[in-house]
Every structure is written in structure tokens, then in C-alpha cells.
Amino acid sequence: MAKIPINLSTGNIEKEEELIVGIDLGTTNSLVAYIKNGNAEAVKEENGTRTLVPSIIHFDEQENILVGDLAKEKLISFPERTIYSVKRLMGKSYDDVHNFENYLAYSIIDNDENALVKIQVGSKFYTPVNLSAEILKALKQRIEKRLKRSVQKAVITVPAYFNDSQRQATRDAGKLAGLDVLRIINEPTAASLAYGIGVDPNDERTIVVYDLGGGTFDVSILSISQGIFEVKSTHGDTFLGGDDFDRAIIDYWMENNQIDAKKFNINNSYKQQVRLLAEKAKTHLSGNEIYDFANKDFVLKISKKTFEALIKPLVLKTIDACNKALTDAQISKSDISNVVMVGGSTRVPVVKEMVSSFFGKNLNDEINPDEVVALGAAIQGDVLAGKQKNVLLLDVTPLSLGIETVGGLMDTIIPRNSKIPSKVGRNYTTSVDGQKNLKISVFQGERDLVNDNRKLGEFILRNIPAMPAGIPKIEIQFILDADGILIVKASELRSGVEQKIEIRSQYGLSEEEMGKMLLESFQHAEEDLKNRSLLEARNEANNVVLSAKKFVVHNKALFSPDVLENLAKLTTSLENSIKGNDKDAINEDMKILNEFSAPLAEKALDFAINEALKGKNIAE
């Protein structure tokens, strides 16, 4: 069936030749690329030579937004209002990132260790999706200025190690930026495409892609045959990269008292200066033996030999990951045809030496390691646009599939354009004490509220053992077969209770209806995100209120009337905020209540432990 390109901004039929750009949304830098005269090309800044856009966002006092180099200039003067390393926070909870918090000059919020991270700037609260969307908007504007035409479609890359939550967050950021994200592809696949590996349908080989960027590391082993890329194994660390090389330098300077550790921990401007100087030192030492810097605030020195000794344990962690990837893929080093190097941190000489030595091969590192992923994404976009016939593309699901969660929100389980067949599982729990039945409603569509999507069916998971809210472990699986038949299974993992439904009408929509649903999702993207953010804040706040009230009931005797009165006031204030429509006010009141109640909870826990140990000999 013929595809009709639609301009997502106007709804008009697109008459220009279809353009699908490639975007590398990176931890340290991001960039956009496209196909020009048959070759992939990264887009430079206007009247400049740089293709990289620093992945940094600055909010001024009037909430105007700067992105990229202009934002980077504010790191020292306004550290608490300048956000970097957002990719490290994508799809993460506070519990995932609290060890990283001390190295950030801005505030991440500890409302709930299991809730997704929020970043506070002034009186406003932002998610990594909001912030990543601003970077994507800047990239979209850059290429539109270059080409003097609108750009709506993109392929965005992510580390192969990204989980479903992180991939969905990346899709959401793209939609908020006004981009139809046709594919989220793994960075290793994009990099191999940039080297022309796998483009020839007769090309059969097994390759390693070693990707060490600013904030993430992953190694992937790809089997390539007849234009099909198959990930045999992947290993890595979403918290290992060039930023950690910088931190090793910082820790060395602290240990040798070249910088004031106390001042570093409490002064955000000082912290940013040190961080930027460490970054400069790392870059300088790739081609020099000594880094030496002095001004009125700092006298800093480090040798290349010391630097390499400091980071060797980190590089060895990547080598260990390479070894595990080989074991998982059940292949040996001799089976590897190519080792493709990706990411700016692979420029560090000791990294190249150790990787080459481990695999016993020369490295593919001729293409700019900062650009190679975006260039490959652009090639993938060209394939999707139908301009390259040699690469085989598997069938994809035309609209997202998901379930209804608390507050009428759509939780996408299989995103639009996912390859089929596909099988995805996700864990949920109950929201009410003693809940025995759970209704699972299945929807299709791109909007954040289920009321704006198409209902496909529903069923009830019955006879869940009565437990407190949050204790049951309910797994919901979506299994989409090659014929487009969707099977949804729900099971309570503690008891083994299970129920399923088969849905055959998934493709019961015309091309026009699907196009209309997709178009509406982009027209209402900002409004939908505001509604989702408000509902999520309310849901989280309701849980906090419920916990606070339970806490008072169980621990009333431990605290003075004044403490209990203050706790009640803060709880009431949060309840009042929940009734309003200001998600920032809800988040602020929630933050205040949590900060007040945290030491109380610690005291109650200490008391409970002491009571439990009374009369017992710990040495026994």
C-alpha cells in the first residue's frame, strides 16, 4: 500500500522528497545528520565548523531557554540553572542515580527513590524528557536552517544497553520536540552502517562495536547477514564514560590537595570550574605529556602517565565487558571481523591500545568517532525513506500499544514502529490495600491519555491475594506475532494467578485513520505532556499523603504534638495542592513534606529495630 507523507505541522500532504534525518542524542554532545548527494553528512553550526551541540540546557530567571554552546557558557556563572548529562537520567529513578548526585551542580529531587527523576530549576520541576526535548528542538532548528525546509521525521539512536523505559523516554522527547521518531535504533547498528558494514546484501560477518562516550559505555557483538543486523550480545554500563575520566582527575586533584574538596562539595560555581578544567586536561593529555594550569584560584598539574594509571581500572571494566559479551555470544576473538570504535572517549590513546591489544586487531576508527553514530542514523533514515534497497527492514507495528494506568494515563508497552514479531513484559502493582481484582484495559494510539486513543479490549485479573498496596508483583506481557495478533497476559508473580486475552483487530484502521491519530498526537504533544505531568504528580503525591497518614497512625506515641501538628499541616497543604492544576506546586509541597518526614522515618525505624533487639544478645 502506498504511503502518503503528511506534514505533521500543517496536516498537508508533503510534496517535497521525503527526508528522514539521523540524530545522535548524546550525554555530552548531540548532533544531526542527513544524506546529501548520496553521502551522510553531519550538520555544522550556522557560519561555523562545529557539528557538535553540547547537550546542555540553561534556564534564565525569566525561564528563557538556551541550548548548546550558549548554555555551556553559563555552567560556571549559573551552575544551578544549567543542566548537563541529562541522558544519564533518562528513564531513571532517584535510587538509580543518587550516587551520581554529588557530581551535579543542579538539583535532582528525592521525592521517592522509585519514582522517575525530576530536576528542579528555581520553582519549576522538569523531567529528563522535557530537557532532552529542548536539545532535539535545537537540532531540528539547526537542520531546518541549513536546508531551508521543515523536518519532521527522524531516526534517533540510543545505547544498546538502554532499557525499555529509557527508549520510551527518548521517543517521548522526540515527540515533544515535534519529531515523528520512526525508529529508535541501537548506536552500534548505526555505527556499522556508517562504515558501510552490512549495506551490501552479500556481506556476512561478525563485528564488535566498542562505544565509549561521555556518559555511557556499551559493547555490542553484531552478526550481519544479507542486510540483516542481529545483536548477538551486548554488555556495558550506562554510568561509565569520559565523564568518569574527568572525575578520576578531579579525585586525584582532591587527594593531592590541588583543589579544596570542601569548597568543591558546597560551591557549585567552583565545582563547575574544576569539572571543565578536568575535561580540558583529559583532552590535552591525548597529545601531550603534561597538563599544567595555574590562575588565582587553581594550581593544577597532572601527567599523561598518571592520568593513564588513574583511568586504567575504568578501561579494564570495559575490557571485562567485552569479554562477557564474547562469552554471551558464544564466540571467540578469532570470529570477529571488525572492531568499530565509537564515542569521543575512544580518542584517548590508552583506550585504543588496550582495545586493540585485547582483540588482536586493527581498529576501525577512521570516521570521526563523535559523528559516526549520527551518520549511520542518517543512512538508516535513508533506508526508511525507500532510497536504499539493499538493507532489509522488518515489518513494524503502525501505532503504539499499551494499557491504562492510574489517572487514565496510557502506558506504552510496544511503541509505534517496533519490529514484529515482538514480546515485551513490564511489572506493575496495586494502588489500593487488599485489592483482589485488577482490570487491564488495552489501547492503541500515540496520545498520553487513554481517552484520546483507541480501546482494543479489556479483561480482569481476578483472585489476587489480598496484600497491602504496592506489594503484589503483576507482570503484563504483550506478545505481538508476525500476523499482527496481539496476546496480552497478566500474572501475579507471587501467587501464579494468570489471565490472558487475544486481540485480532489491531490493524482494523485505515491508513487515513492512522495518519489522523498520529497527526493529532503531534498537534497535542505539549498539551498531552502537561496533562501527563500533572496526573503523574497527583498520583505520586496521593501515595505520599497516604504514607504520611499511615505513618502518623503507627508512630503517634513517638513524637511530640508539635511535630505531629507540623506533619499534619504539611500533609494538608499537599492535599490542597493535589486539588489544583499546578504540577510544580504539587512537587514543591511534596518535596517539603518528604524533607520534613525523612528524619522522622529514620527515628521510627531506629526505635523499631531497638524494640526488636531488646533482650537479645547480638553476639550469639
Assign the CATH class of the largest domain. Answer: Alpha Beta
Note the main sheet. Answer: 6 strands, mixed
Number of helices: 15
The poorly predicted ranges are none
**Overall pLDDT, averaged?**
85
What is the terminal separation in angstroms? 76 Å
Give a quick rundown of the structure:
The protein is built from 15 helices and 26 strands. The chain is α+β, with helices and mostly antiparallel strands.
What tags apply to this protein structure?
globular, six-stranded mixed β-sheet, Nucleotidyltransferase, domain 5, Actin, Chain A, domain 4, Substrate Binding Domain Of DNAk, Chain A, domain 1, 4 domains, four-stranded mixed β-sheet, 620 residues, single chain, alpha+beta
Could you please describe the fold and organization of this structure?
The protein is an alpha+beta fold. The chain has four domains: 20-198 and 369-384, ATPase, nucleotide binding domain (Nucleotidyltransferase, domain 5, 2-Layer Sandwich), CATH 3.30.420.40; 242-309, Actin, Chain A, domain 4, CATH 3.90.640.10; 401-510, Substrate Binding Domain Of DNAk, Chain A, domain 1 (Sandwich); 527-613, Substrate Binding Domain Of Dnak, Chain:A, Domain 2 (Up-down Bundle), CATH 1.20.1270.10. The protein is built from 15 helices and 26 strands. The longest helix has 31 residues, at 525-555. It is globular and about 70 Å long. The model has no long low-confidence stretch (mean pLDDT 85).
